[in-house]
Amino acid sequence: MDQSSGVDTTLPLILLGVIGMLLLALAIIVFFIVYQRRLFAQQDQIRGMEAAYQKDLLESTIAAQEVERKRVATDLHDGVGSILSAIRLYVAQFATTERSDDFQELITETKDMVDTAIEQTRGIAHNLLPTTLDRFGVLRALHDLCQRIQKLNGLDVHFHTDQPYTFTKQQDLAIYRIIQELLNNTLKHAQASTITLHFEQHPTALHIRYSDNGQGMNPTEIQALSTGLGFKSIETRVNLINGTLEVTSEKGQGIQVTITLPSREILDIT
Amino acid sequence: MEQKIAEFITDLVLYSGILPALVGLFNTRQLRNNQKAILLLVLLSIATEVAVYWIAYNSGLHNIVFYLFTIAEFTLLAYVFTQNWERNDKTKVAWIAIIFFTLFVLLDMLYLSGIEQFNSYSTSVEALLLIGFALSFFYITLRELKIKYLEREPLFWISTGVLLYFASSLFIFLFTNTVNASMEALFIIWGIHGIFRILLNIFYSIALWIRVPG
Question: What pLDDT sits at residue A122?
């Protein structure tokens, strides 16, 4: 074969290969730079959203604390405070009232008011932190709470747990507050006649299912609920115990709430 | 004409190696280990060019210098890239690659290309392996997202330079012995190679210029 013709065919091929490889390398470098920038932009965006979410949760927590303080202050002022003022007036009458039937009646009324004050103080304390929760755990405390609601509000409250779960103190309190908030919502807004609360163990997680047969909500109302203070407080507590929250509802179909807690987070499952 | 241009570019390659060497020597105290390896590579590159000129001037077998430089270049760049890996056995992997490559260069020198020809096979294999190493840097960077400002990372400039140079030169390395018959073609392709080598030296200069805090 003629040497020069061999070169003629090889050289363009080499040059083509060089240009092709150069373009490929350039494309890889440009792709790398653009993709790296995009990933960082996405990361910054996610961080910004997380920070905004955390700020939102913090504000909700502070607002919820303020609401709770206001409620306790109202309970103390309007309940125990007014009874104690009345008791003071009655005690002041002791010095001027003769020891007769009226005096005996005064003492009886005073004792009744002291009993009422004690009862109200217990009620306030129970609302703040039930002693059952601290002593016997969340399952017993929820059982008592459901019974109390059934008795006081005339609703059918079905509470069922498939196992005697043991939680940490932090989980006990968080689960109790979450269910308490859900019960409050049902009592205030749902016009329900039945509430069910189930604790069920699944292969990898515990499902706490709460539902009522109230008027339910349309998607707009669910959206409004999710931005409300009570719901934010539920969300914060669910996050605190590393759980997840799912809320479903339809108009006229009541509400269904599922809190999923990974099994590894639970202290004891028999 | 082609010969004059090629000779001019070849001279320029030698002088372009002085730039990263001066930058590296000026910054020696601030250099990280991978930058020091690049400085050593640049100095070896200059020494190789001088040795080749000297041996060629004295009508000796200057190709052996290229064989030795290929081993040194691969060893230093393999060290630079593998040190970036998170793997516990990175040193072991680097050593295996270096030993394998050194054996292959010996094979190329003795049986494949031979001592009298350009080390076509070993430079081609070196190019493929180093392209892989450079891509590993890009992959790790995207996966870990630890480097936010690429322009402040010496390894980014080294990887970019290595990828551009070895990808572009791969076909030249592969087929250079085929076109040896025509001096004209040889001048053209080695002129092009020289341009990419100058580009690589510029990227090395930037990598050696960057002062990494801590």
Answer: 85
Helix, strand or coil, per DSSP, at residue A59: helix
C-alpha distance from residue B34 to each of B19, B37, B71, B133 (Å): 18, 5, 17, 14
Q: Quote the pLDDT of residue A3.
A: 44
Total residues found in chain B within this entry: 214
A18 to B171: CB separation less than 8 angstroms, yes or no: yes
Write the ipTM: 0.83
The residue count of chain A comes to 270
What's at A223, amino acid-wise? Q
**B180/B116 Cα distance (integer angstroms):** 12
What is the Cα–Cα distance from B214 to B208, expressed in whole angstroms?
Answer: 16
Query: Contacts of residue B135 in chain A, CB cutoff 8 Å?
Result: 28
Give residue B32's identity as a one-letter amino acid code. R
> What tokens were used for B103?
């054996």
Contact across the interface for B167 and A4, Cβ inside 8 Å:
no
Q: Output the pTM of the full model.
A: 0.66
Mutate to test the interface with B, among A1, A3, A9, A18 (most CBs of B within 10 A): A18
**Of A223-227, A256-260, B186-190, which one has max mean pLDDT?**
A256-260
Q: What is the per-residue pLDDT for A41?
A: 92
Most confident of A59-63, A128-132, B82-86, B132-136: B132-136
Residue of A nearest to B184 (CA): A7
CB contact under 8 Å between A36 and B142, yes or no, is yes
Task: Specify the pLDDT at position B63.
Answer: 82
| Range A101-118 burial, b when 16+ CB lie within 10 A, else e | eeeeebeeebeebeeebe
- A68 phi/psi in degrees, rounded to 5: -65, -45
Kindly tell me if the per-residue pLDDT of A4 is higher than 60: no
